Amino acid sequence: MTTRMSEATFRLSYDGDAVRDGEMDVADLAPALLGLGQLLRAAAHVVQGEAADVSVRVKTMRDACFEVWLSVAVDDLKSAWQIWKTADVQGAATLLSLLGFSGIGAAVGAIQVVKRLQGNRPKRVTATSPGNVAMEIDGEIIEMPDMVARIALDAVVRAAMERVIADPLEKDGIDSVSLGEAETGPTVAKAEGSYFRALPAADSDEFVSRHTKPFSILTLSFKPGQKWRLNDGASPRQVTMSDADFQARVDASQEAFAKGDLLVCEVVETSRRTATGFRSDYEIVRVKEHRRALADPGLDLP
Predict the structure, then answer these.
(1) Same structural domain for residues 211 and 283?
(2) How far apart are CA 147 and CA 99, in angstroms?
(3) What 3-state DSSP class applies to 76?
(4) Could you give the CA distance from residue 179 to residue 297 in angstroms, rounded to a whole number?
(5) Which range of residues forms the domain containing residue 265?
(6) pLDDT digit string (tens) for 115-174?
(7) In what order do the strands lie in the sheet with 5-15?
(8) 67 lies in the same domain as 154
(9) Cα(181)–Cα(262) distance, integer angstroms
(10) Domain boundary among 128, 162, 196
(11) Domains in the chain: how many in total?
């Protein structure tokens, strides 16, 4: 039997000061592109099952922000695509529609659902008509195809969304991510990036502690809502700075920083077990001390 593949193109675009010249650090781009392939394959597995055959290829790159056009190919003979498969709907275009990359097909896609959930699980999801569900989010009932809900809540899909959306948006100079069609595809702003982290498992364990912790400074942020990149002595971390007084002093140039400085902070640490592993997040609620780097005494020591 001859395999029949359908193909559709879409775009992945990053915007911000760091990519305005049409260039992007390969250390950021490579994980994002690998994550995008994982995202499309995981979504196809939700719809078609593990037999789904999906390939993703880079077609062209364009300047002005950082834009990559890609193609996704789907083996249309692997599955009947359930209620979605009709004579005039190909598998590849349908997959992009379910994800929310295009304005064709589903009125709401998985990307839009994740944005509405804002990092939370829905209160309830109930079946309505065949192939459709009603999802309750913040007291509002939103109807959507069953497959859209399944994709939006799938653990492997959400892990891939972290690599494509959440991780790049934590980088300095990347302010938004756009997917799909140039005019109708969804855009995720920096402040929305955390929504695309993996959901806590339904039976997750969460531990919250408040304690004092020192950090060395790697990268400061002067934009509200943007995380600071600090080192806790073990590894670099993206840390939320919630001390408004300290941030105000930084903005007013009343705090000066040098290599080797330490911030001794009152920290709220939230550790949780998620569907993709154990994760800890830090929030600095008060900078207790800005400890300057030791001055060089000028001694000629061996």
Answers:
(1) yes
(2) 9
(3) coil
(4) 54
(5) 206-291
(6) 999 988 888 898 888 888 999 988 889 999 999 999 999 988 998 999 999 999 988 889
(7) 54-62, 66-75, 5-15, 176-180, 187-189
(8) yes
(9) 45
(10) 196
(11) 2
Claim to verify: residue 210 and residue 191 sit in the same structural domain: no
pTM for this predicted structure: 0.66
Q: Judge contact between 14 and 24, C-beta under 8 A.
A: yes
Please count the other Cβ atoms lying within 10 Å of the Cβ belonging to residue 280: 12
Tokens 């330490």, located at residue: 262
How many residues appear in the chain?
302
| Pair type for strands 277-291 and 236-241 | parallel
Is residue 217 located within the same domain as residue 264?
yes
Tokens of 252: 């007013």
Judged against a pLDDT cut of 70, whether residue 37 lies above it is answered with: yes
On whether both 191 and 213 belong to a single domain, the answer is no
Query: What one-letter code names the amino acid at 74?
Result: V
Are 267 and 285 within 8 A, CB to CB?
yes
Give the count of alpha carbons within 13 A of 89, CB side only: 15
| Cα–Cα distance for residue pair 186/272, rounded to 1 Å | 29
Structure tokens at 20: 């305005």
If asked whether residues 145 and 225 sit together in one domain, one would say: no
